[in-house]
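Re: the pair you flagged

First of the two:
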Amino acid sequence: MFSQLARRAVRPVASAARRQFADAAPAAGLMKLNFNLPQETLYDSVSVKSVVVPGATGEYEVTADHVPIVAELKAGMLTINHEDGEEEKYFVAGGFSLTHEGSTTDIVCPEAVKLDDIDPAAVSKNFEAAKAKAASAEAGSIEAAEAMIEVETNRSMGNALGLTMA
């Protein structure tokens, strides 16, 4: 379901090059990030300053020497803060974050899309279409449940883009 929604909202772009660096221990104040999707590895033991994670129980930031934690991710924005101050933002469909001793965090998601690659107009259009589909579906039906998933996914994408989704 998310794949179909994401494809409709993602601008066609060339696949970004993966970031891969050596496996050396992170420099002081940095952490190692592994960010994986089923079909590709986006980050493989890359040193970063921090990661802001959309946890199912609330957003939190992981930095070097963070206490070990396992968290379920909700659909939302994942922000990677690089050592040079650059921010890289992804919309994730959910997944898990595992922070280990030694300043290493693993992010595993079924799908992730760079926020810059999402078309706000398509998200708004898809959100309105999903609301209409939900309103016309029979209460308690599979169609109603699927429409509500579309509504909530598009709402989350819109919120990540700073859109007002009502």
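Second of the two:
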Amino acid sequence: WTRFQYGRQEDVAEGISWHQEALELRPAPHPERSTSLNNIALVLCTRFHKYGRRDDLEEAISLHREALELRPAPHSERSSSLNNIAVVLSERFDEYGRQEDLEEVISLHREALQLLHAPHPVRSTSLNDIALALWTRFKKYGCQEDLEEAISLHREVLELRPAPHPGHSTSLHTITFALSTRFEE
């Protein structure tokens, strides 16, 4: 994986080729097809970060969507697939500023959260993801309700990450940042 991030373009192309070959060996309804789709999408995202090829980003989104279709509720990895799409759409929003991408990011993170009831170990991460997306929307469009909900979600994250949780200090930082944003408004 590191070699893809820092290596040559040929390495990434070869990695994609191997992942595509693995995908061909896993036709639908193979139980691991969604994993192969996600693997290709991750490498395409790596190549997008390195070379900025928009078609890589678009294909990654498409592959993540296909993987999600193979993981209907109550599939144990559905929340992960929802998050994968949200992350890539968030990158596209950061790159091109399409409001509909940000709206879908928030919707996907909310759907993922609904699948992660307390005390699920990644519930706090899902709450944090929604809070960050809402904060982004607040910064871009100025809707005060987004900031208020983000602060509320950050408080919930903090409750799920008491000291000495490894994410406690980061949670303290993010809620402080959100509160200072509200103070400055």
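The mean pLDDT is 94.

-B.
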